[in-house]
Amino acid sequence: MSSSDTVDKGAEAQDTGRAGSVRLDRVTHRYGRGGATVTAVGPVDLTVPAGEFLVLVGASGCGKSTLLRLIAGFEQPTYGAVRVSGTAPRPGGTAGVVFQTPRLFPWRTVRGNIDLALRYAGVDRARWPQRRAELLARVGLEGTEERRIWEISGGQQQRVAIARALAAENPLFLFDEPFAALDALTRERLQEDVRQVTAETGRTTVFVTHSADEAVFLGSRIVVLTKSPGTVALDLPITLPRSAVDADELRESREFADLRTKVAHAVKSAAAA
Amino acid sequence: MSTIPSPPQTDLAPLPDEPPVRRRSAGAGGTARLRHVGLPFGSLLLFLLLWQLLAVSGTWSETLVPPPAKVWSAFVDVSTTHDGVRGYNGTTLIEHLGISLRRIALGAGLGIALGVVFGLVMGTVGWVRSLFEPWITFLRTLPPLAYFSLLIIWLGINEEPKITLLAVAAFPPVAVSTTTAVTAVSQSLVEAARALGGSRWDVVKDVVVPSALPETLTGVRLAVGVAYSSLVAAELVNGLPGIGGMVKDAANYNNTPVVLVGIIAIGVSGLVIDALLLRLERAVVPWRGHV
């Protein structure tokens, strides 16, 4: 953690500079130029304290992916400022990203994909075997090192992508609807694994989805976005007894069902507005 | 573990219900072998038969259409030492071919290397592409013979103009296919590499080059083909020893059998090289079709 830990200036001021924290300050993003611009997002004010699991929910086209790309540093806001760990985000330097599709390199094996991420992260070559084994164990893919990308299932490919994004040990983790293309069973299992990985590593997570179910299961806080341009419609902290019960019990609980209904309604009315 | 079966596994899939499948697959294998080996072989026999008939019919003189047997004995003559004469003009057929192949390896190799470099730069830097693309298209449309005279004036009559001609002929296909492949590189993979912390150079080395490789190799096959078809042109002047020079020289003396031997040697060696390049392509880019 950064040195700002020692300085006590109130919770928010402290959080915005801490490793993994995200701060969006009146962020607006527009596509196109001249007269034909479309405002995709904004204005959005949002502070994500370090260690939080924030889920951004909204109907398709509400700009949630754009917001994630702004936080990742792939896009620059038209107005306002984005800060990650107190600095401007830079692709590869501030956050690990998992995309909608695995985006693995087909000319490399599972091992090759992980190794490339370790090399880019500047990990000492002597430590690669150990780190690779750790990363693959963390996503449940032991023994698949030599497999070609097209020889493993879609769910396994997305697991490799998660392991790859974990290689750099960035304090922030970004997910852009990573399980939308997977079957229900694989999706639930991966959701459980993502929760476990982020809880174990204590990383800040921003997770984009259109599923209220996924949002309630994963998030410690849910933000619902309105449609074009995306602005914050609902900001909801989630307090579910996660550690006390197992995943299936949690999904079947009354509180879970209530929250899911609440979020689903908010998404619907935000999309209609 | 659920896996997507690779093509060979799909072939094995129906094996469990053995007897009927096996009989069927053996029959299918036989038909396939007949088609892949029998048909080409049969057409070759038919061709030789028609050739023989045409030659004995006397429609054209033996100088214009020599019978297959005469071409065969010319082949034996140029491949061996007979009556104290070694091959054709002191060099055996295989040596002529070897010298020409060396020229192709040097010339086409140079052209291919330059083509890859130009393609990579043109594909990544927009203004370089705008600058060079018209020139490369211009070069591509020129028949090699058109600039060969110029090369003779500039470079003399030894190896230099021949190798330059082959390099100039091989360059455009590789440059064009590499440029296209680099421009078509998947932006989502580039972004994935950048998200992992890859630098600009890392992205070129680890994403752009491998993803352009399949199409570049297709360009290499095209380039070798173009170089091969320019071989006789390259060896028009002072081409002996060399297979193209041999064809040219034999033509000067109306030695049609040797001309035919040369043409067949060029064609057959071209087929062999193309098959080798195809095999190389399969070995180097196993992910082709999986991107």
Tally of distinct domains of chain B:
2
Order of helices and strands of chain B: HHHEEHHHHHHHHH
State mean pLDDT of chain A (0 to 100 scale): 84
By CATH, the architecture of the largest domain in chain B is named Orthogonal Bundle
Overall structural domain count of chain A: 1
Number of strands of chain A: 9
Assembly type of the shown chains? heterodimer
Residue share in β-strands of chain A = 15-25%
**Shape assignment of chain B:** globular
Give the name of the CATH superfamily of chain A.
P-loop containing nucleotide triphosphate hydrolases
Sheet having the most strands of chain B: 2 strands, antiparallel
For the record, the CATH architecture of chain A stands as 3-Layer(aba) Sandwich
Mean pLDDT figure of chain B: 85
Judged by helices, strands and strand pairing, the structural class of chain B is: mainly alpha
Q: What is the strand content of chain B? A: under 5%
Overall number of strands of chain B: 2
CATH topology of the largest domain in chain B: MetI-like fold
Radius of gyration of chain A: 19 Å
Distance between the termini of chain A: 41 Å
CATH hierarchy class name of chain A: Alpha Beta
Structural class of chain A, by secondary structure, is: alpha/beta
Task: Summarize the structure in words.
The complex is a heterodimer of chains A (273) and B (291). By secondary structure, chain A is an alpha/beta fold. Chain A has helices spanning 11-17, 64-72, 110-120, 128-138, 154-166, 184-201, 212-218, 247-252, 254-272; strands at residues 22-31, 38-48, 53-57, 79-84, 95-98, 172-176, 204-209, 221-225, 232-237. Chain A has one domain (3-94, 170-272): P-loop containing nucleotide triphosphate hydrolases (Rossmann fold), CATH 3.40.50. In chain A, 37% of the residues lie in helices and 21% in strands. Chain A starts with 10 loop residues before the first helix and ends with a helix. Chain B has 291 residues and is mostly helical. Chain B folds into two domains: 16-56; 93-284, Orthogonal Bundle (MetI-like fold), CATH 1.10.3720. Chain B has twelve helices and two strands. A two-stranded antiparallel ribbon of chain B has the order 1-2. In chain B, α3 (68-79) crosses α12 (256-284), α4 (93-124) runs antiparallel to α5 and α4 packs across α11. Chain B is globular, with a radius of gyration of 25 Å. Chain A binds chain B through residues 72, 74, 91-93, 95-97, 99, 101, 103-107, 116-117, 120-122, 148-153, 164-165, 167-168, and chain B through 1-4, 6, 188-189, 191-198, 202, 206-207, 210-211, 213, 285-287, 290-291.
